[in-house]
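notes to self, project folder thing:

trying the whole complex as one job this time. last attempt i did each chain seperately and stitching them together was a nightmare. three parts in total, labels are on each line so i dont mix them up again. if this works i'll redo the older ones the same way
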Amino acid sequence: MQLSKRKYTNALLGFILLIISLSMAIPVLYAVVTSFKFENEIIGSSPTFFPRKFTLTNYQYIFDHKDVYLRYYYNSIIITIFSVLINTVLATMMGYAFARLAFKGRDTILGFILFIITFPLAVLLIPIYIMEYEAGLLNTHLGLILPNVTTILPFSVFIMRGIFKSIPIELEQSAEIDGASVFQTWWKVMLPIGINGVSITIIYGFYNIWGEYILAKTLATKASAMPLTVGLTLLKGEGWNYGILGAVIFLAILPPIIIFVIFQKQLVEGLTRGAIKG
Amino acid sequence: MTKLRSKARVKARMGMFFTLPGLIFVIAFMIYPLFTSLYYSFTNYNYVYDVKPIFNGFQNYIAAFQDETFVLTIKNTLVFASTFFVSVMILGLVTALLLFYFKGKDNLYKTLIFMPIVVPLSLAAILFNWIFAENFGLLNFIIGDVFKLTQFTYGWLTNRVTAMGAIVSVTTWSSLGFITILFLAGLQGISGDILEAAKIDGAGTIGTIFKIILPNLRETYVITGIWAILRGLKIYAPPVVMTGGAPGNATRVMYMHIYDNAFEFFEMGYASALGFILSVIVLSISFVNLKINSSKGD
Amino acid sequence: MKKFFALMLVVLILSTSVFAAGAQETPSADQKTSAETKQTLRITGLSWQVQKIFIQQAAEAFMKDHPDVTVEISTYAEPSVVANYAIDWSRGKTPVDIAIVSGAQFAAQFVPKGLIYDFDKDLNFFTGDFSKDAFVNAGLENGQVAGQQYVIPLIIETYAVVVNKQMFKEAGLLDRNGDPLTPKTWEEFYQFAKKLTKTSGGQVVQQGASIQWSSVNMYAALLAVLRGARGDIYGPDGLTLAFDNPEFREILRVWKKGVDEGVFSKEMYVDNMAGRNSLMAGKVAMLLDSGGRFIEGGQTLGIENVTVMPFPGADTGGSFGFGAGVIIPKSTEVPELAMQFIKEQLLGEMVQTNTVNQYGKMPSMLRHYDGADAPEWQVLKQIADKSGAIPTYKDFAKFQKEAPPLVQNYLDGRIDLETTITRLQNLAISLDKSLI
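result (full assembly):
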């Protein structure tokens, strides 16, 4: 009787989860499905969900110019991977310092770093543009990596600091007793236990930079360095043709989804491994 | 005694060493723009038409609060941010709890819930603009043609209240995945022993949730809370794309006003001042969140 | 976990070489390549402009005629990006030789610092076949800052009413020739819209009229109807916009009546394309928007089933004209070549007739209207020739942003007519009008 009640509640939980998942997925599904429709099915008097007539016309322009679009993908990948790499290294280091390595002025620096996130980026665009112009960094990968890292670093530091703080101090102390240096403690003890935090930082960095638009549209005006988010919006006519919008969304989310599917096991494991589970 | 002091000193030195690279990064890239902005905020500077910025003290800041539209945007932003905060925090926590307690193959659910994260918010806003469209939108299509309830089809974006609701929905949809991940990590971080002890003491699931789990998620509240506050107060793409601030100025948010002043009116001085005001508001509210959730001995 | 970090390390090493290569800016056409006699002409525009003004085809034709020239086309994502060119231009450099912009209002930001050419004074453009009277008046006006011609107009659009003929027929609103009747006053316009609105089960299934009321474009509708009603958008000083008059009050009153009775649609409040979409879906009878939209309506409804007519006053007082044109930065090294491209291709028959027939963007030169297929273009040409363009004040952007919410609030009944008029007029007075 206990068992069947549990099964019943479990099924209920599953059902609610299904509803939530579907609501999350349907808009994206709709976009993808629409990308394969003719315009008269989208705007016409009787819209449909699944295409009555399947077509690839919305992708035509992209196929005709595949060199350019491959370049956009390439740019996005390079910028995202390097930014996430640099961000993760810096955030895990700084996070540990803010959590466990006290020194004078630490809290002021933390406050300053947090202040940065509160400021609207748009206002800083012009000074950043001028800075990069003088340094010759416009339209380069580096020119996009640096500001992107700076924008996600503060919050990543915040995450890592929280994660490290929640690790019981005994673990560090026992490492210390075993003769580990600060660096070794960080590398061998804190990082592995805090791996779910590291995963979160990576995910946070990845999806923020992959979808970054404001910095990119100002600092990369040429296809040589333009990432996908900006490049795809060039497909907008005077107003969005919804079929093309669907194609744009589909192409923009394809790589992250593929990466997620491939690394799903590691990510989920990294995310859900408890800090001190039994 | 000396061993302890030198250990602390080693730690302090390492602390600085660990902080330095990131700090250099941030200083190099943010200091110049931030200070330039701060300087501009005290000047009258139209960067297209004026040759030089002209110092005008606190005039921009005073003018900001006399600007009816700006004050309205503060109110709109707070309304949006609080609605968004409540909806995403509650939905996120509930979803995380559901995933936590569900026994079975949850990979599909996790994938679908996390999927909206990869859709850039600006594209998501355009997508939802279309879903909520009065004439060809998916929502009205489902209500009208699928459920045959044509009298309930509505101009969602042309009514002040539902327009705000629509914007909150997009942002919640886009953010739910990440917040759920954060809460889930927090839940996993609760010691298994405590949960075991509760079960042995005979606490039901509901009781465990309210008495043990929720209080133990403090650190997570700080992180998720700040994330939601930041996103809520600094929102830009959804209102710009979906309503343009309409109807009337009902959905005009602060960031929109700042952006217009900077890039359409070219008033860098005024826009910088507005930026700092936004900054201060965000900082204060984040600080409140931090204080409420700080654990003892912090 | 160890494997994960090892993987990351490998990625890091592998990508370093790629990264190092990518850190160099790919050599752009900023520098003159080799010392050949080949000249390069670089042109940029928004992607829809490049498409609808046939820039690609123009470039190919030009290169065929001039084998020693290479034409490079680039597109920019948003107008704010062009604003950044000013930084290059102030230093005597430029990534483009010709830039397509929306008009003088956009070009105005480059004028105070002398960054772009005055086509009249500096370049002596208006000679021979290209004299000023060969151009449509609204187009030229749209390219003038403080009376000086800084933009050469390429395409123009003007506000008018696009009509679904079938709906007019069903409502019995045809004249003896079987053509749709034209409402002469705003009250008549409202009456027509009432007859043309059909409801079913409490929902509107056919909308009488849809007017461009979006936050982005309402300023254009306001200026258009104002000019139509009074023949001029300015007050007695010739400088300040004039809203405080009986004609404009009447227009707002009729608009509000239409909204209250569900006869005029509010769909464009938040979406400037909603009216055009409704037109194409056969859901609206009269669309007050850019007149060229009848081409788009024709795509789904059949070109015989759509036509255009002036809104009340547009045929006597004029309407509002806008469009796109080109500027040439002073930092370019090939101004003569740029002018040649403009005269031979951009203002040439191929571009100017194709853009009107395919996309509904009207030619800026009068002689190309002969090549325009549909008879509606003649109607629009006459309206455009009477139309005025955007005031090029320094602060006009403020009007564009602040007027729509005012009017929307009035139409929604949140503020009364007198308050609306007072606020609009105060707004008009408060604008910094230098530069005009």
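what i see at first glance: The radius of gyration of chain C is 25 Å.
need to look closer tmrw
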